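Per-record layout

source: Tardiphaga alba
name: MBL fold metallo-hydrolase
length: 509
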Amino acid sequence: MATKFVVNVDLVDIWQEKDRKKLIRTLAWGDEISVVKQTRDYAEIEAVDFVEQDDGSILPEKTIAYIQPSKTSGLKLADVIIPRRQNKVLKVNFVDVQQGDGSVIESPQGKVMLVDGGDNQLFARYLASRFRGTSLSRPKEIECILVTHGDADHFLGLPEIFKSEENKTPRKRLFMQPKRVYHNGIVKRPEKKGSKNRPEAAMLGPTRKVGKDLFLTGLETNLLKVDDDEMNAPFKTWKNALATYNKRAKVEFRRLAIGDNDAFDFFNEEDIKVEVLGPLTTEVGGKPALKFLGKPPRGPRIGHESLDVDDLKTSGLSASHTINGHSIVFRMTYGRISYLFSGDLNDEAGRYLTREHNGGNINLKAEVFKVPHHGSADFSGAFIQAVAPVVSIISSGDENARKEYIHPRATLVGALGKWSRVPEPLVLVTELVAFFNVEGWSRVTDKTKDKKRGEFFGFSRTAFGMVKTRTDGDRLLVYTDSGNLKMKEAYAYKLDQAGLLQPDEVVRA
């Protein structure tokens, strides 16, 4: 019978044969393995090999593999793998979902939290591959699904997980059961009400004017209680999936705002602390409300005017900037390493949070920074300066001209480098760390799918642009995959006595 272990070094190669012959792939710190046999020199494990088929597809196949530290590494097998119960590694993966966001947080004890989910099937496919063997009677338990805000590119991929239950291919199915669903309380309305276009100020529900400002007062908590007529199509799709999950086992719905840290008490026993830093609510008529934000100045930005936290001239009302600016922002700290998740936070809201940071009310500083809004130019330089990230991750990807926003913007990437606390910061873009293989000239054979497309030059994506991070609270590993099995882009850091991250050697067995 196999015994559960975890990898205890940064990277470890697994081989088809003993004596380190025929590389299958590389595992990373904190990855779980099933050990069938163990000697002083090697471990025989259950593994999955990805084998190319005759039609060019790559399918997983179960196999037996071997972990055997190289003689030159100076490592013993006991250094490389440890029993699962001794695991202390927090795993955070930023998943390539093209134009959108989707992240997976897994605690050392195996508690899983999803943050957003893109707007296509990519997030669902990744999760089905990672959490294999689920069924209706044995679903994967998800502690929390956190949707930072109600734009489709952040949550419409989550109903794809529900749809995957009926996929004809078993390996593409994921049965999950979320315990909690958190969101910012803003529900988008349909663009039309009857035959008329809905006014911008009415796109996000009831409002109330206070002086010169307009506030959203109809913030929602339980999405299942919102009428379908008050939801746009993506929200209704998400609501239908949630209704089924809720029938199977009661789901806790909660609207989050600054200070709602107790929502993450389920992490307490693992020394994982989550601070909710946004959105910032205002009391209007005795109820929590969110200010309706305006349109920012047109870019591109020249100079550093965005460092002035008080001087931003917006105009009119913008539903899109309002829902983005009131994204859930949270800071997750494990030991002495912090992550900051920022949804699609924009310049106007970023300045509000920076004022709170400068006033000592919140702490924005973090080692790992999920960059807002896919690298948009609508950012606050002062906000980035407050975060002072060592590692910045931008989730973006080209799909088509309709979704082309020129992400990430050069000004944003430059600001991330300038305002980092280290001389050589990491700026990783999910799209740029993907690997595309040249396939050559192709032709659409099914004319019912595309009547116009003739011959075209094709590429396939053989390695998705996922950014993976691992930490035990004192040490940090950041790595990405490559089109070459033998290569990983990997960086390690270790905190010194002053609490500053210093580069460390990447250990590979």
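summary: The chain has a mean pLDDT of 92. DSSP finds nine helices and 33 strands in the chain.
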